[in-house]
User: What shape does this take?
Amino acid sequence: MTVTTPTDTLAELGLSAPPRPVYLDCNATTPVDPQVVEEVMKWTSAEFGNAGSRTHTYGQVAKERVALARTQVAAVVDATPDEVVFTSGATESNNLALLGLAGFGERSGRKHIISSQIEHKAVLEPLDQLSKRGFEVTLLPPTSGGWIDPGDVRESLRPDTLLVSIMGVNNETGIIQPIDEIASCLSHHETFLHVDAAQAFGKTIGLLRNVRIDLMSVSGHKIYGPKGIGALVARRRKFTRPPLEPLMFGGGQERGLRPGTLPVALIAGLGVAATLAIQESETRDKICRAIQTQALAALKPLGIAINGDLGRSVSHTLNVSVPGVDSEAAIVALKDVVALSNGSACTSQSYDPSHVLQAAKLPLDRIAGALRFSWSHLTPEIDWLEIATRLTKLRSHSRA
Assistant: This one.
């Protein structure tokens, strides 16, 4: 089947499509790597077998590809393949990790959970559901630099603490959380440690290899893989798996934790994306760091405020506020140059102020002006000077 795009139609009429803005919203979703596209297409068309079909070669080949992908994903975080549970993405993985421990918490009398005020809604909303079930949830505030103080985690621990859930990298500010230090605080405590690794997996390789992390949530579309696929890595501790219980039933796939026919093509794509993340880690970081340097050189003369401790930031994200510039107005003014956002894609349909920046106690005008630039190693050249020029004009116009 041939798919006709608007660009094709314009070409037939002898017209050229207007240039698209440079995409700078990679924390919302990344472009798909060409090698991943090729792999997904292969396992969509040529190899379409069901991995659960055990009576013929189509199913066996599919099953072997799923097993390989499990190995590829596990390698990123130094886990074992049988500790990888495939899901639809980090949101489902977060729900499975948090709500899946509820039964054990209720039976054991451990009904206290520690998390943070800067978590993604995919963590905060399941925690709200646990609160309604009688769990006590402690949400720690961030420092002014946007990271969670491990000492606050230590002081909040109680004998009945079931779980500590802290994200690896904040999706709005790009600030890397001190996971190693938090894990050290739990060295003599039985509490489970969950990391929402949607923004960290495949990008901060060493961060997630701490064996004290029990549960990690992963999304394929954050690491140049397809949408609709992710994983929950559930590490054994002393040969014992985390006592998770399924949220859905019917089929028994994925060790009974996630029923349903496995999307082999998407899983294969995630596997390739995971392997590329390891192989290209240093090169990707070098390219992204160079882009960050260019951005800062162009934007600093505007008197920008950097939201978050830049020394703790990933190389592909920059969250800034331009004095006198509203973020919504800036996004409109820049829409033909760059595509960017002012926060999480999951909450961008509303114009509520960022809960992440509010938690850091930033001034309201600074929150209202916050812009999140997020790029990748695949990002083409960015005209940062044009961006700075337009923001300057916008500020001048707002003051007039």
Summary: The CA atoms of residues 21 and 338 lie 4 Å apart. The chain has two domains: 22-32+281-399, 34-278. The two ends are 55 Å apart (CA to CA). Residues 57-76 form the longest helix (20 residues).
